[in-house]
Amino acid sequence: MGKKKDAKAAKAVEDVFSSEESPLSVDVRTALRARTAAGEVLSPPDVDADGTPGFEGNKAEGRAALSARSARLAELQELLYAAGRVDQEAAPSVLVVVQGMDTAGKGGLMRTVAGAMDPQGVRTAAFGRPTEEELEHDFLWRIEQQMPEPGQIVVFDRSHYEDVLVHRVEGLSPRAEVDRRYGAIREFEEAAVAAGTRVVKVMLHISKQEQGERLLARLENPDKHWKYDPADLDTRAKWDEYQQAYAIAIVETDSDRAPWYIVPADRKWYSRLAVQEILIAELEDLDLRWPASTIDAEAEKARLAAL
Ligand code: AMP
Ligand code: MG
């Protein structure tokens, strides 16, 4: 197929999805919430990593839906940004925490979902091994500095949850300190919500087999070696312990005001689509309106015409 034909075919698929309506047949926040309607909290192994809840289409259709809906996300983000420009104090903000095992697709999610929005009002922050300076402070110190300002959306690529995940499994902190942190995290997030930040937490859930394939793909492509960290294999060796640490973190810190979502991520296109829908739903809940005009448009038009 020629390039033109390719583009035409893609457009035809895209037209099937409207930017105004969710392409998912389920309420994404109900379907993917770690806490079920019955109040039970799911652990990652309870969720099929290969699933596509609420979406019957294939990969091409999934990508078309992702792209169609990114216009809606961008519009809502502009509304939020406008609210922040009008009221620097009281405008809401949004924090999306993204966690997941190595190769789960955190980086790609940053690129596609966060990248669909206007960089003026959106920021991503990645948290790796703490620096010397960061280690001198409480674990939340470096997190506080990256929290969103009113009107902003911030997406965390890893987060304060590493301090109860890798720290628990690898014993980087004493168990009593790790146990203290769940409460500290609850209080920290609760305070952020009270101050006007919507907090959404996403675990990109991949299967061990899919991770194996992704790591092998990285090893087989020299252009991707920069992404390969030999330490990832040590983490993989403790797969079940990490899954358990996730389960504990989710049970300890899920609440209606700072909910956890377990997002199937063996298909990257689905996880991106689902997180985009979660974000759209959060922003729609804010019920934002364009700021009231403070100019006399007719008078300005007359001035413009006269110039
Ligand atoms: P990546 O996301 O691939 O750049 O890897 C970042 C690495 O930093 C991962 O191995 C994380 O487990 C590690 N990391 C992130 N936060 C912390 C933390 N607070 N303490 C120790 N290791 C961390
Ligand atoms: Mg890595």
Describe the fold and architecture.
This protein has 307 residues and is an alpha/beta fold. The chain has one domain: Rossmann fold (3-Layer(aba) Sandwich), CATH 3.40.50. Helix content is 50%, strand content 10%. The chain has a five-stranded parallel sheet with strand order 2-3-1-4-5, with helices on both faces. Helix 3 packs parallel to helix 12 and helix 7 packs across helix 11. The longest helix has 28 residues. The protein is globular and about 70 Å long. The site of adenosine monophosphate has 10 residues, from helix 7.
Concise overview:
The protein has 13 helices and five strands.
Describe the protein's topology.
Elements: H1 3-16, H2 28-32, H3 59-86, E1 93-100, H4 106-112, E2 122-126, H5 132-135, H6 141-144, E3 153-157, H7 162-170, H8 175-194, E4 197-205, H9 208-220, H10 231-237, H11 239-253, E5 260-264, H12 268-285, H13 297-306
Parallel strand pairs: 1-3, 1-4, 2-3, 4-5
The structure holds adenosine monophosphate and magnesium ion.
